[in-house]
Specification:
Elements (H helix, E strand, L loop, with lengths): L1 H10 L5 E4 L5 H7 L3 E4 L12 H25 L4 E3 L6 H8 L4 E5 L8 H8 L7 E4 L2 H10 L7 E3 L21 E6 L8 H13 L4 E6 L7 H14 L5 E5 L5 H5 L3 E4 L8 H8 L3 E5 L4 H4 L7 E3 L4 H13 L1 H18 L2 H16 L3
Length: 360
Amino acid sequence: MAVASVRALVEAGDQVDVVLPSDGPLVPLLTEAGARVLVLPLPVLRKAMLRPLKLLQLAATMPRTIVRSMRVLRRLETDVVYVNTITQPWWLLAAALAKKPRLVHVREAESEQPAIVRRVLLAPLALATRVVCNSKATERYVLDDASGVTGKTSVLYNGKDWAPYEAPAFEGFAEPVRLLLVGRISPRKGTDTAIEAVHLLRQRGIDTKLTLIGDVFDGYEWYRDELGAQIAKHGLEDAVVFAGFDPEPAERFGEADLVLVPSRLEPFGTVAAEGMAAGRCTIVARTQGLVEIVDSAEVGLTFEAENAGELAEACAQLIADPDRAVSMAAAGRARVLERFSTEQYAAGTRSIVAELEKSV
């Protein structure tokens, strides 16, 4: 969404300078969107750093980090500072010291973390002039665990160009029924729940095939091994396909019958919107931002997170009622195009930044 924010502001006539902590694939995308990109190797707050010794080491680097940040703000003649992540909070302090308006866009809702960790992560938001959240769930997380943000928050849903997701209209189920899960292979994404649901569906005599598009992050190889054992235990070797990472998975949604989003945590849930935009029935866990995307039974179904039985039942209901599935798929696509467009995201971004520019 950083690229979309840049594009919206550039189109509004703003000069946008983006400072990144390292070079990478974002640089050409941001440049193409009209930004001037500066790579400045400043620290990034990772979860592994949220330990006493690591935090002390980080604190020792802060004076130099703040000085470098303030020099950049002066050199670029910055009017408004837009912090696109809570993992570099020092920009807030630097901007506050430079007396610049400060907008923070929060896209994370790490509600599973201990309370002390959540408060440490969100403490810098007290320095923000405005806090924008990508869902009501994220806003609740911020208001519950951050101090000094009352009256500063608002919600701006992500937007996307849905044209690449347009697919032939759903007309009924294939045999076997094609289930799709897109996302990294991790416990947070609930891959194990989807596999268990396939087992339960096949026990009921419903032939299904689950395709997993995504890969395992470093350090989570153990989870991939657990999934392999789960598949072997249920004899699902022919029913579950690990398709690997796909940088452009838009067309894959149109190849599915049902899109599953069994995440345990999901601050927004772009994958759910992608499934709906492709005109495919989408079934999501009732958690965080997912229920703001699938907000009625007309556009999709929900199930209790981690409850494979309820997920299997939701799938079975739709498979048994293809007319309902066809209607739901069409309604879901219409809802996404209406609520999560690039136009609404761009307009919201411009409005918030323009408000801050007036205070300069």
